[in-house]
Design goal:
The structure is a homodimer. Chain A has about 350 residues and is of the alpha/beta class. Helices cover about 30% and strands about 25% of the residues of chain A. In chain A, the strands form three sheets. Chain A has a nine-stranded mixed beta sheet with strand order 15-12-11-10-6-9-8-7-16. Chain A is elongated and about 75 Å long. The two termini of chain A are about 40 Å apart. At the A-B interface, α6, β6, α7, β7 and β8 of A face α6, β6, α7, β7 and β8 of B.
Amino acid sequence: MTNKPYNLVIVGYGGMGSYHAKLLKENPTINVVGTFDILEERRTASTVDGYKSYESYSAVIADHDVDIVLIATPNNVHKEIAIAALNAKKHVICEKPVTIYSEDLEEIMKVAEATERNFIVHQNRRWDKDFLTIKEIYDKTMIGNIFHIESRVQGANGIPGDWRHLKAPGGGMLLDWGVHLLDQLLFMVDSKITSVYANLSYVLGDEVDDGFQTIITFENGSTALIEVGTTNFIQLPRWYVKGTAGTAVIKDWSMEGRIVTQNFGVDIEAPKPIQAGQGLTKTMAPPSGAAVSTSNLPEVEPTMESFYDNVVSVIEGKAEPIVKNMEVLRVLRLIETIFKAAEANEVIKDFDAYKADPI
Amino acid sequence: MTNKPYNLVIVGYGGMGSYHAKLLKENPTINVVGTFDILEERRTASTVDGYKSYESYSAVIADHDVDIVLIATPNNVHKEIAIAALNAKKHVICEKPVTIYSEDLEEIMKVAEATERNFIVHQNRRWDKDFLTIKEIYDKTMIGNIFHIESRVQGANGIPGDWRHLKAPGGGMLLDWGVHLLDQLLFMVDSKITSVYANLSYVLGDEVDDGFQTIITFENGSTALIEVGTTNFIQLPRWYVKGTAGTAVIKDWSMEGRIVTQNFGVDIEAPKPIQAGQGLTKTMAPPSGAAVSTSNLPEVEPTMESFYDNVVSVIEGKAEPIVKNMEVLRVLRLIETIFKAAEANEVIKDFDAYKADPI
């Protein structure tokens, strides 16, 4: 045993569960005391990795030394595991998507309130450097007011793993990667959603979506194109963002990217028409050299506590959660709306509770 | 005078009119005998360029030596000029967009039929090398069956010129560049349109759209994202196309691009998870080296007559027009539908007459 003040058990010791174990090794406050998994091979993996494997989930929540349960199972069992842990007076960290249906999150939130325990969803990608860089450009109006955001992840490997191919455990790309991209978007754009259009892709023949494109419009006039793909053998940039004074692009997680801004107030030479295919175009000609400036992406200083530090601060009553359950609920309702919009092939409006209490 | 068999007058000697004059200098069959423009400065330009400037449009159509009238005026006067020319037994070449409203084209088509003259729209970008290359990849299933097409032009110069800023003469980017991209799309994808979603941009404060994104779905299951922008200081690729066996990209009119295809039936190593921001991902990891092959874009052999040669062949009864008026009408109706879909912010379905006679 260590002297770390909080003991945590990881429930579901698969890809994400073992990733959390690795991350928490470095953490000075949270101690991983064990794991629980229903699969024999994952129990063995846990033992090999040096973590006690609990015999049953009941044994986890009966263990008075356990302060925090971290849930990294398939999505359809998050709720029962979370509620049992909360009722046993444990705090809960839960992987994303928190639940498949928003009503299930609402139930969990009610239990958390009644038991006075904290339930915090691991929307880890709010801390991604690419996102924080775009958010900095957005917040500091470095390309003017941003009015259009394109956020994409495009893979070429199809849908990975086992349960992600299936509908019942909450597979599919909208719930898997979509939840991240939408969470980032709503964490950045402080405006009510006015409409959603969406197109889900089923080209791989799975019963769940293998990708999607959705166009979201906001009350403040801005628009977002959010896309996840798993059949993309060439990748478009991770971020492509348009402001009233320029454009920013981030290619991928290596943080290759740039900002190009318009030079105002200078005596700018008009662009010269270029030959473009079988025609001339002035509209699509490159601007004259003096008309624009290219710069590097800003270096972002971390201003938020890390996810785990924030969990501890919340448990100790020292901070609000960075990932608020109301925000997670709003994203989940947006996902439900995207499913509906795609199924009906219709634009859906007036569904976003925004800052009103949505429960 | 030359010995070229057909005499042509250019009506509207602006950017496109003078561009046609330059192109036709090389043409062995069509002789530019003069121009007409309502602006004194453009008449002077015509004289300087060596082309007789007619005193009036009546003088153009009264001239028995004139075989063809080429219309390169603002869009709102195409119809009256075209109908007068057809009634005077001239053939007519008309710049795009042919008219602002589809009913106007229908009227012209009726007059052309009644007068037994040819009316042909200059959809020159059907001959663009970038488009023909994508069409070759499409037709020859070089990346499998193509199920998603993204076709974009993105400028950084705002809306150019004078009348393109105004609604009455048919300004705006949907009518200007949109008509090309949509014409190319429908010339390539042989399927009925099942739905249209669209979002027009008015960020520059003009009374017309300064760009748009539209998502079109087809009966054959494929989708297209068509985009025109004039506030894009960084450009996404001109073409981004997904097939069941790969992806193709063309960066711009310089024809930089590539094809990446999936290698089937080989013993492919699964992709290794990569660190991506604050998480691991296998889904978005690059495929293993043996899993994909990269190749150059195909070299396209021209298989169609040139636009002007086709006009002459049509006049001489030797060929069908490559740009058929029914096709132009279908594109115009699609544009009208895009305007409607954007204004209502709704998905519009069941409007496309496709191969049925739409008049």
